[in-house]
Design goal:
The protein is α+β, with helices and mostly antiparallel strands. It has helices at 19-32, 35-38, 63-68, 76-83, 112-121, 166-177, 190-205, 222-229, 231-246, 271-287, 316-332; strands at residues 7-8, 42-50, 57-61, 84-93, 98-104, 124-132, 138-150, 155-164, 212-219, 254-259, 262-268, 291-292, 295-296, 301-307, 338-339. It contains eleven helices and 15 strands.
Length: 343
């Protein structure tokens, strides 16, 4: 076996196990080994355990994974366990229309390995590990594996990969630490709006941006939704609405939650381009299929639009006030519409 591709550190191929298990293991090694060279951030592995023993061991590991933990391949299972800080899983909760993060911390790791065996025995494992290498460097590894049970041998075989997602998870943690995202809608919070406005105003003043628009959006008759269907339904609508709005934005656009059922938007371009952006958002909401417990809930939004170029004194508060004034004009004129000019 190519040393660069990986190392066989197990006991199944040299032990008294069935030909079927050994053949499957050889096939898995042949398939996973080349990944080490083809994908630098991917670390293939094959783990195994007995049905009557909680000890998990590696049958095969990519050489670079052992190098990351500064240990020999045969020592990797014990070293990885010592370096583990926490384990995270992500589950989609249909009722909440959201992904929930579940974290098992270092203090809770006592029963972790037996729990992992049960999860893997179900056929699939998908999780993210936060580990501290012997050099005290924090590394995030996403685990994805499938397992097979060989009843005759009393062995579970788990074949998978650990992918280095350190950059992505570090960025996620940073955003969470500064309170970037609203918990319900997963959109940027109101506090982030002020930072974005300051940045865009600075770009306009330095001549790096010709114009930009600010949008205020409000869900029409939201109190009726809460009163008719309940507050859980209202939360579900807000989360689904956030997805509909976010799906319409371009790279240079931003959508966030202002407060309650109000949202904000920022878009580069003229007042006219902002109006078109607002219309796309309005139509997207109107045409979306919002449902709660099988019942469709009609949802529309009213939107006020203001452009930076309209103001003699370009400060965030005045831009927000103009958009807010036009939002309430849209409400007075019948709702489910965009207002971008004063009457």
């Amino acid at each position: 076996m190519d040393a660069k591709a990986g190392a066989y550190v197990g006991k199944i191929l040299h032990g008294d196990y069935s030909p079927a298990l050994k053949q499957r293991l050889r096939q898995a090694i042949a398939a996973l080994g080349p990944l080490t060279e083809l994908a630098p951030r991917v670390f293939p592995y094959i783990a195994a355990w007995r049905t009557d023993d909680p000890t998990i061991w590696y049958e095969f590991v990519g050489q670079r994974l052992a190098t990351l933990f500064r240990c020999q391949p045969a020592e990797l299972a014990a070293t990885f366990k010592r370096c583990l800080i926490d384990r995270r899983s992500y589950k989609y909760i249909a009722v909440e229309a959201a992904v929930r993060e579940e974290i098992i911390t270092r203090q809770q790791l006592g029963g972790y390995w037996s729990g992992l065996r049960k999860e893997a025995a179900s056929g699939m494992v998908e999780a993210v590990y936060k580990v501290a290498t012997p050099e005290e460097r924090i590394v995030w590894l996403k685990d994805w594996a499938v397992s097979e049970h060989f009843a005759r041998d009393g062995i579970y075989l788990s074949c998978g990969t650990l992918t280095d997602v350190t950059k992505e998870m570090d960025h996620k943690e940073l955003l969470e630490q500064i309170g970037y995202f609203d918990e319900l809608t997963k959109l940027p919070k109101r506090g982030i709006m002020h930072r974005l406005l300051d940045v865009n105003i600075g770009q306009v003043e330095r001549g790096h941006l010709s114009d930009f628009v600010f949008l205020m959006l409000d869900v029409d008759h939201f109190k009726t939704i809460n009163d008719t269907h309940g507050h859980q339904a209202g939360d579900h609508v807000l989360a689904a609405l956030a997805e509909a709005l976010a799906s319409m934005k371009r790279k240079e656009d931003e959508i966030g939650r202002y407060a309650g059922e109000e949202f904000y938007g920022i878009s580069h371009g003229s007042l006219e381009s902002g109006r078109r952006f607002a219309e796309r958002l309005r139509r997207s909401v109107e045409e979306s299929d919002f449902r709660w417990q099988g019942e469709r809930i009609p949802v529309t939004v009213s939107i006020g639009v203001a452009a930076a170029s309209e103001l003699e004194e370009l400060v965030p508060e005045k831009l927000v006030n103009v958009a807010d004034r036009r939002l309430y004009a849209a409400k007075r004129r019948g709702r489910n519409q965009v207002v971008w000019q004063d009457a």
